[in-house]
Amino acid sequence: MSTVPAFRAEPLTAVLAHVEAALAAGADTIAIAVLDPDRGRGRYSGEPVDVDGVAHVHRPLRAWIDLADRLGLRLATPRPAAPPLIELRFERLDPAARWQAEAPADVRERYGPASGYARIRKLEEPGFVVDLAAAYRRAALAPTARVLALGVNTGDELALLTEQVPGLDAEGELVGVDHSAAAVAVARARFAGPHHGFHVADLAGLRELVLGRFDLVIALGTLQSPGVDDRALLRQVVQDHLTPNGAIVLGLPNCRYLDGELQHGARMKNFREPELGLVIKDLAFYRKYLQQHDREVFVTGQHYLLLTAIARPAR
């Protein structure tokens, strides 16, 4: 039977105060007992639940996951406590355990397959996969399409695309650009068809590659990379590399990776909560510019914000 503090009908602010006080006192782990979320199935967070004459407040598991995320904690797998309660254990994250603690000797390999970044597998994040697959469907590509991936790395975005567009790997043309030679080597091995091409180059020299025009251009996390002029690169893509009916999918990171956890929102120094001013400003510019160039624009996503621009239907 659990001996940790139990919260039954107390408001969330009382739970929050307890957890924050424990953190301020230096605790690395905070355990509490709360009503099993399954006892309130179908109710919204905060609705009352009576169990054998005892008043409780329902909170779905999502609420506890959100609380952990906002406080920079890890929520361990819930354990049984005295029925109808479960035990929740929150663990403090290690602020030094970032995906890449040290810069590599060659800055071009900062996101290469030998870097700490390679630990991050976006295709195992449900929100990313579901949202990006939906964006690809909006592009409505034919199997013979030409596709350009900027900042292609090892080609994960192309792997998902070829699953969504049957025949694209065999009949289409996949082109990728990245400044990591090691990442490009992996992408070449993954997509070895005779029509595909992967280039080791900085995006500032994109025009020199003479790549032509494409039915889809993908740039996930690329426009926000250090040293990239995102406005100039977007203009160049639209003016020089997009077919009249071509589509664009842009991905803007809205998260951080810390100690094995994916946390929502960009975090500024001395801010516990996400600060979204810069990402909103960038999205507003991209959206307006693409609309001015005859594109219908959709903005979706959560941890990765996806801007999808497709040609407006003929009137």
What does this 3D model show about the protein?
This protein has 315 residues and is of the alpha/beta class. It folds into two domains: 6-92; 107-311, Rossmann fold (3-Layer(aba) Sandwich). It contains eight helices and 16 strands. α7 (230-240) packs parallel to α8. It is elongated and about 70 Å long.
* Beta-strand residue fraction: 25-35%
What separation lies between the terminal Cα atoms?
68 Å
- Spatial order of the strands in the main sheet? 10-9-8-11-12-16-15
How many strand units? 16
Classification by helices and strands: alpha/beta
What is the CA-based Rg, rounded? 23 Å
Write the layout of secondary structure elements.
Elements: E1 6-7, H1 12-24, E2 29-35, E3 48-51, E4 54-57, H2 61-70, E5 73-75, E6 79-80, E7 85-92, H3 126-139, E8 146-150, H4 156-164, H5 168-171, E9 173-178, H6 181-190, E10 197-200, E11 214-220, H7 230-240, E12 242-253, E13 255-258, E14 261-264, H8 277-292, E15 295-301, E16 304-311
Parallel strand pairs: 1-2, 8-9, 8-11, 9-10, 11-12
Antiparallel strand pairs: 2-7, 3-4, 5-7, 6-7, 12-16, 13-14, 15-16
Helix pairs in contact: 3-4, 7-8
